[in-house]
Amino acid sequence: MADRLTKIYTRSGDAGLTGLANGERVAKTDARIEACGTIDETNSSLGLILSDPGLPSAVRDSLTRIQDELFDLGAELALPGHGAISPESVLRLENELDDFNSALPPLKDFILPGGSPSAAACHLARTTCRRAERRVWTLAETADVNPELLKYVNRLSDLLFVIARVLARQEGSTEILWRSGHR
Q: Is 130 or 78 the better-scoring residue by pLDDT?
């Protein structure tokens, strides 16, 4: 593979424009760029979780694969008409969600983000993913977006919620239950 980034700065974005993968120049505030950026933020949030050397291997394997898929998803957003996320991608997330959730006690109350450092980082990734989902839906109001991509981002935030619960338990923490009106 040839060197792809021989120079990190190009100065081509100094006027508020950036390039899509097809060479088209768009505003850095374009809905497509917003969607790509928040997917990138989600991926970076997963990197924070993955920096924990004590992660269970099933969680590490899942999040590592998802990071690759988020790059594919970002490429799909950056190249209009390109498809990368398939129904199988969504099904894989659903199966992992079911597998991780099957070992957890039923949820009877709302829980607050936290519980342990890794669980809190996973909750942060979940909320970043929800923002990414909103940005992709904003894009979908004016452009064609693969419906499977929309489903994928929705399932991913659900999976991150369940993984946060798994990590809280794995790290010996209890989930912090929401108490309405608590002062």
A: 130
